[in-house]
Amino acid sequence: MTEDSGRADAPAAVSVHALNKTYASGLVALSDIDLEIRRGEIFALLGPNGAGKTTLISIICGLVNPGEGQVRVNGHDIIADYRKTRSLIGLVPQELATDSFETVHNTVSFSRGLFGLPRNDVHVEQVLRDLSLWEKRNEQIKNLSGGMKRRVMIAKALAHEPEILFLDEPTAGVDVELRRDMWALVHRLRGQGVTIILTTHYIEEAEEMADRIGVIGQGRLILVDEKQALMKKLGRKELRLHLREPLTTLPDSLQARDLELSEDGWQLVFHYDMRKEHSGVAELLSELEDHGIAFSDLHTHQSSLEEIFVSLVKDKR
Ligand SMILES: Nc1ncnc2c1ncn2[C@@H]1O[C@H](COP(=O)(O)OP(=O)(O)OP(=O)(O)O)[C@@H](O)[C@H]1O
C-alpha cells in the first residue's frame, strides 16, 4: 500500500481517458473509453464475447499497446511509468499457462522476484494456503489438474502483493469449490484494500461480486453504474399476450401502463420489473378482463444479456 491510498484526493486505482484501440487487422476493439475505477472497489466489466474486455484489461496491464488515449494506474502513466504501474498490478489471465517442470512454491516465489521484490516465504505460504495449494507446494505444475493450475495462476498474480488485481473471466470452466474459494479470497483482499477488477459475461457473476459494473459492447463502454442501480435496469421481464380479437387501439385507462400493442393488433406486450414485489401483472390481467379483452395464450420472457445490451445501446442514442 502506498501512503496516499485511502485519501479522499488520492488518484483513482485506474483511470482511462479517451482510449481507442485498433488491432493491426483493422478491427476496432475499443472506441473512446473513459473509465475511473475507485480504490478498494470490486469492479465488474460485463459484456458479451468479443466486446473488448480482455483488450481493455490487457492495455491497462501493459500487455497490449494502447492506440490513442491515456491510462493511469494509481496516478502513474502506464507507458511513462511502466515498471511502476506493472508492479502495482496482479493479473489472472483467461488462458492457463501450462506445462511447467517447476514446483508450485518456486513458481509463485519466482514470480515475486520478477518484480524485484525480496523473497518472502511468509507471504508465499499465506497465498498458497489461501488457495488450498500448500499441500501441493512441491508438485511440478505439469502434474496438477486444470483447477489446481488455475489456483497457481491466481497465486502467481498475488505473489508480489499487488494493490490492484485483475481477474479475466475468473469462473469460466471453474469448479464450484474453486469458485467459492476465489470469491472468499476476493472479499478478503478487498478487506485489505486491494482493488479488484473482473471481466465476465455472466450478469449473475457481476451481481454476486461487484460494487460497480461497467457494461461494454462492441468496444464501447455503454454505461457504468452502481450494481444496485444497474440490476434494476437489467431486471426487466416481458409478458406477451396473444389476443382472441385484434385491437386497433389501447383503451385509455391502459395507456398509462408500460404496455405496447403490436402493429397487427394481435399481441399485447407488457414490461415489468421482476425484482419488484408487485409486478403489476395481476392488476393488468384483471383490467383487461374489465375491458372484455380476452387472450388465447400468454408467455413470459426474460431479456437475455444480448438483448439487454442492444436495448442499452439503443437507449444511449
Ligand atoms: N491480437 C488481436 N488481433 C486482432 N484482433 C483481436 C486481437 N485480440 C482480440 N481481437 C479482437 O478484438 C475484439 C475484442 O476481443 P476481446 O478479447 O478484447 O473481447 P472480450 O470481451 O474479452 O471477449 P471474450 O469474453 O470472448 O474474451 C474481438 O473481435 C477479437 O476478435
TrEMBL record:
Domain ABC transporter span(s) in chain numbering: 14-243
Superkingdom of source: Bacteria
Record's keyword annotation contains Membrane: no
Pfam family, one: ABC_tran
Gene3D superfamilies: P-loop containing nucleotide triphosphate hydrolases (3.40.50.300)
PROSITE patterns: ABC_TRANSPORTER_1, ABC_TRANSPORTER_2
Position of the signal peptide: none
This protein's UniProt keywords: ATP-binding, Nucleotide-binding, Transport
InterPro entries per record: AAA+_ATPase, ABC_transporter-like_ATP-bd, ABC_transporter-like_CS, ABC_transporter_ATP-binding, P-loop_NTPase
GO molecular function: ATP binding
Alphabetical list of SMART domains matching this protein: AAA
Name of this protein: ABC transporter ATP-binding protein
Species in which this protein is naturally found: Natronospira bacteriovora
